[in-house]
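New here. Invent one.

***
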Amino acid sequence: MSSVCYGAANKSLPPGPQRICSTPTFGSPLEKTSPTFEIESLVESDKSGGGPKTRHCEGFLEDDIFQHPDLQPLLEEIQTHCPSSCRPMVYCLECSSSNSNADDATTHYSLDGCPFITFCKNCEGSASKDIRRQLLKHELTHVKQLCQHGIPNPFYMCSESICMEYEAYDESGSCMPPPLLDDGVTRQSRESCLCLDACRSSGRICGSADSCFDKCKKIIGKGQCKDGHFNR
């Protein structure tokens, strides 16, 4: 599960619920809570520019993960949309297990306009190399969105969350192919599959799963989601 925290200080992370996950999960990037990590002045800005880099990720993320061809187009977009002085950081941290509600990964919006990502290294859902890369691509999509569009309109938070999550799941390869329906033969449409994923992440903002799904189908059908941003 992921969440994006607006105005997060660069030297600490805001407190929030935690969960040690059994499957890879994502939450809305518009939730104002994030996992609580036991860190001491760990998060800091990097003003050297030149794209993302990692810290405390040895043995968790591949050393050359930012050279992976699957990430290159997204990294180029991040360099285009983020400030030239911004080098988004990816921190791999141990989540506290004292609470039952932590996120696999979280994108944080910092006051200096340079988002950063945190991973729960001890979350079971991010156990495999391929899943970690998928998680990273999902969160990097949120970094791009925040740099490109800034803080979304608070009056349209549900729609904004749906659009952000729909693009992030799409970019990270979710629903490829979509799952089979109950008949075991027919495949769910990719649009419906991505809306279900987006609403699973946006539920705490959008309310019931059914109302969120209906809203997602409506705004996607009208073409109101563009580059992870809601267009009225």
Residues 129-149 form the longest helix (21 residues). Residues 154-230 form one domain.
